[in-house]
Write a structure and sequence with these properties.
By secondary structure, the protein is of the alpha+beta class. The chain contains four helices and four strands.
């Protein structure tokens, strides 16, 4: 499913440097399997950390309601 989504978004797998998610997903089997298969680091952040992360994100009311933060699929700028 992750590879299909990357394809839909026209993102080549080779462009993925790491996978990040909200802390409550830290033991999500599908994400862990994907990261193992493609040898990608997986890092998780709390809702507070995500709220204060700089970058461009697509807001989501659903994710705000369920996860406590509305930043979804984006690019964090360091």
């Amino acid at each position: 499913a992750i590879c299909q989504r990357l394809e839909q978004e026209n993102i080549p797998l080779a462009a993925v440097e790491q996978v990040c998610s909200i802390a409550r997903k830290k033991e999500e089997p599908a994400i862990l399997a994907f990261c193992r298969k493609y040898r990608l680091p997986f890092c998780c952040y709390t809702a507070d950390e995500l709220s204060s992360a700089p970058g461009e994100f697509r807001p989501s009311a659903f994710v705000q309601k369920t996860g406590g933060v509305d930043k979804v699929r984006g690019r964090v700028t360091a």
